[in-house]
C-alpha cells in the first residue's frame, strides 16, 4: 500500500531506533533493523554519532551488509570497514556491482586489501581486477558490466522470447545494446520500443544508431554533464575501437552530481573530503586544521602589512577602529565573484571564448559596487567621526579594494584551473589574501599620505 | 555512429558559433544552429554574454524555441521571455510538459501572463491552470500527467497488444501504473517485468504493490532525497485518497538535486537566485548589494565595538596591527562548522535525536582547535614582538573565539531552521557578526585589562 508521508515515517523510525539503542535494547534494535530498507539503515548509520555506529553495525544482518556498504558515503564506509574482519569484507562485497566494489577496494589499506582479495573466489578476483583497472573518477570506474546485448538481424519476437527465458533484467535497464559478433557497438533499442513495435520487425529497423556514447576514459563530471543535458537514464561505455565495455546508470550519476556540487561548497570552506557529519573529533580537527593554518598565514601577512603603519596607527587610533571594514567588504565581494565563476565553470558555462567578457563584466560590477559602497561608507564615517577627509580616505580605499576584489574573484579561478588546481579549494584563501592586503594598503597607506 | 569526445566536440562547436556570431555571419550561424541539439543550443545561450543572447535567440528556429526554453535555467529563460511577444510565448509553450509550462508561466509578469493565457487554445489553458494549481517546489509542480495506466485483471498479453496499438511511450517511462476504475492507485509494473514475464499471467500477479508513493504536497527536496535513496527512475504522485495524479521522473529530480546543492553554495556567498553567469551588470550589482549592505552593517558593528578601545589602541598600536587575526580565525573555523551542518541538514543526516551530540562534537573540535591555534599564535606573537604577556592575551582571545565559533557554527543553522529561515542564506552573516565581536572583545578587552 502506498505510504503517505514517507519522509516523516523514516525520521520517526530513526528516532525510535536511536531511543532503543540508547536504552541498550539491542535485541529490539536488531528486530527493527531487520524490517528496515537498506537505504534507511544506511541513513541511520550516517546520522549516528561515531561511537554508536560500531554498535549498530554489529546488529545489522550480515547478509545485507554488502548492500548497505554500497549505500554508505565513502567516508562513513571506510570507517566501518576499518573495523571489519577481512574475510567478512570479502563476503560482504561478493555481490556488489563492479563500480561499488572498486570504490570499496580502493579505500582499503594495502595489507587489508591483499587479505580481502586473497579470500575472494577467482571469479570475484577477476571482477575486482577489472574494476580497479580504470582510473578513479573516470567513466570506466563508474561503469557496470551488466549490459544486455542483442544482434541487429534478429526479429523483435526473438528478442522477446530471449528476454522471457532470461527472466530478469539488471536494474535501471532502459535499453538493450546492439552489437555485432566482435562486440562492436551498433546502437540501442529501448524497452519502450521493444514493447510498442511490431514483433515481426528486425532489431536493426527499430534501433537508435545516432548515438552519443561515452569513452571509457572520460572524466565522471563530464559524463554527468552529458547525462544532465540529454536526460539519459543509462548510456553505453565504449573503448577507443567502439567495443562495448559496459554501461553507466543514472543512479550513479546522481551521486556524482551531488558530490560535485557539494565538493565545491565543502572545499570553499576548507572541508575537502569531510563528507561525514559525525566524524570523530580528532579526525575532524586534523582535517580542518590545514585550512586554519593557511588562514593564519594569511592573517599574519595582513598583520605584517599593517605593522608598517604602526606609527600612523599610534597617531590616529581611529584608523585601527575602521581598519577591518575595507578588507571585510572586499572579501565578501570577491567571494561572490569567485563563487559565481567556480559554479559557472562546474556547469560548463565558461570557456575560452567568453572568459574575457566575464572578466570585464566582473570588473564593471566591481567598479559600480565600489562607487556605491565608497559613497555610503564615506558618509557614515564622515558623520560618525565628523571628519570629511577620513571619509574620503576610506572611500578611496573601498573603491580600490572592490575593484581588486572583482578582478581577483574572476582571475584567480581561471588561472588556477589553467594550472590544474581546484579553484574551490585554493581560490578562497588566495582571494582573501589579495583583498586583505590591498584593503589595508589602500586604507592605511592613503591615510598616512593624506592625514598625517 | 558513436562520437568519441563529445564534450570537446560541444566546446568546439560553441567556439565556432561564437566566432561566426562575432563576425556577423548570421546566415551561417542560423544554419549551424539548425544542426545542433536543443540541449547544446541551450548551453550556448547560457554561456553567451547577455547582449549576444538576444541576437542568438532571433536566429533559433521558432519551431524548437519551446524545447530550448524548457532546457534553459530559470534566470536565463526569464530574460529571454521578457523580450518575446506574448503570442510567440504561447506558441513556444504549446508542447511543453506540464511542469515546465508552470515554471515558465510563473516567471511571467502579470500582464504578459494574461496575454499568453489568452492566446492559448482551451486545452492548453486547462493544462496551464492545472499546472499552476500546485504550490511551487512541491511534488505537484514537479509532476507530469503523462502516466500510462492499466487495470489489474487483464493479462500481460493484452497489455502488450495495447502498447503496440499505442505505438509510443512517454519519455523516461520505466513502469506502467495499475489503477482500479476509480483511478485508485494499486501498484506498478515495470517495463522489464512486462518483457520478461509469461504473457499469460495477469497484471495483478506481477505488479509491485509494496509502493512508496509521493503525496502531491511533498516538498521537492524531500522528493529528491527519496529518489536518491531508492534509486528510482520515476515515481507515482498520489492525492490524499490514493488517486493517481501523475508521475515524477528522474530528469526533473536531477535538476532539483543540482539546484539544491548549488543553492546552498550560492546562498552562502550571498548570490541567492543568481544562477546566470552572464547576467547584465546592473542587475548583478543590485542582487549582490543586499549581501554587501548586510556585511557593511556587520563590519560597522565590529568597528563600533573596537571604538570602545580607542584609547587602548592609541597606547598600544601593536594591538591594532594584530586585531584582525583572532576574528579572522574565528570566522574560518565557524564557517567550517556552519557549512558542515548546512550540508548535513540538506542530506537529512541531522535530526532531533542527534543534534545534541552534533553540538557537543563541534564544541569539542572548537576547544581542541582553540588550544592548538592559541599555542601557535602565542608563540608567533611572543617571538615576533618579544612580548610574552601579549602572546598570552592573544592566546586567550583565540581560544575563546574558536570555542564561540564552534558553538555558533552549530547552533545558528539549527536555530534558523527552527525559525524557518534558510540557514545557507542568513547563517554566514550572523556567524561572522558573532566571531567578529567575540574576537574583538576578547582580544582588546583582555589587553586593556592586563596590559594597560
Automatic annotation (TrEMBL), chains A, B:
Q: Which InterPro entries does the entry link to?
A: CBS_dom, CBS_dom_sf, Mg_transptr_MgtE_intracell_dom, MgtE_N_sf, MgtE_transporter, SLC41_membr_dom, SLC41_membr_dom_sf
| One Gene Ontology term, aspect cellular component | plasma membrane
Q: Where are the transmembrane segments?
A: 290-309, 315-342, 363-386, 392-416, 428-451
Q: Which UniProt keywords apply?
A: CBS domain, Cell membrane, Magnesium, Membrane, Metal-binding, Transmembrane, Transmembrane helix, Transport
Supply the SMART domains for this chain: CBS (SM00116), MgtE_N (SM00924)
UniProt name for this protein = Magnesium transporter MgtE
The record ties this protein, via PROSITE patterns, to:
CBS (PS51371)
This chain's source organism reads Pseudoalteromonas denitrificans DSM 6059
Subunit description: Homodimer.
